[in-house]
Amino acid sequence: MNDTAPSLSLLTGGSGEPAVDEPRRSTLPFVPVVVDLASPVPVLAAGGIADGRGIAAALALGAAGALLGTRFQATAEALVDPATVTAIVEGRGHDTERSDVLDIVRDSPRPSRYTARTLGHPFLDRWRGRDAELAADPRARRDYQDDLARGVIPPLPVWAGEAVDLIADRPSATDLVAALAAQAEDALDRAGRR
Q1: Do strands 116-119 and 65-67 pair parallel, antiparallel, or not at all (unpaired)?
Q2: pLDDT averaged per 10 residues in sequence order, the chain, 194 residues
Q3: Which of 13, 45, 66, 140 is deepest in the core (most CB within 10 A)?
Q4: How far is the C-alpha of 27 from the C-alpha of 34, rounded, in Å?
Q5: pTM of the predicted model, to two decimals?
Q6: d(C-alpha 86, C-alpha 176), whole Å
Q7: 134 vs 12, 120, 126, 141, CA distance in Å?
Q8: Distances in Å between the alpha carbon of 162 and those of 17, 69, 172?
Q9: Where would I find the H helices in the chain?
Q10: How far is CA 45 from the centre of its chain?
């Protein structure tokens, strides 16, 4: 491999935060496509994976591993606001949505083709489907900042994937990794017996 060739490829399906140009592809059918295209470069699967069964599925589809973003936000070591952890533990997959509303109002440099997946947010409710209008309305940014200052809305969006349903606790990262490995091994063993 030369110095300019990638040593790893990250595939993010539409269930999580997009890191590729096709953020709306579901992870499950997308993994083998990317694995075949990227070979021999190892691929990590991401998006909608929050337990060992998801890791096992990614491995069975040819990925070298998995990236679990939302799951690790709910660990004892995560450097996130406690309210974020509570929102993740209490959140449900159907409560997440892709939108660039919060990126627009926060002047985020994130490219608009990579919409963020977050848990519900009052500002999303107010501006859903009106992205262009929001981008052109300086008063909306002031209203957002005023709402933040008054504590009417959360200080940060809660970025979370659809697998948030599978998160019900806040273990240490060490305990989580051990549990994920055991779950993945069990899932692969069960699949091998069938």
Answers
A1: unpaired
A2: 65 56 71 92 92 97 95 96 93 91 84 81 89 92 92 86 95 98 97 82
A3: 45
A4: 10
A5: 0.83
A6: 17
A7: 28, 18, 10, 8
A8: 10, 11, 22
A9: 27-38, 52-60, 69-73, 82-90, 101-105, 122-127, 131-135, 138-150, 173-193
A10: 11
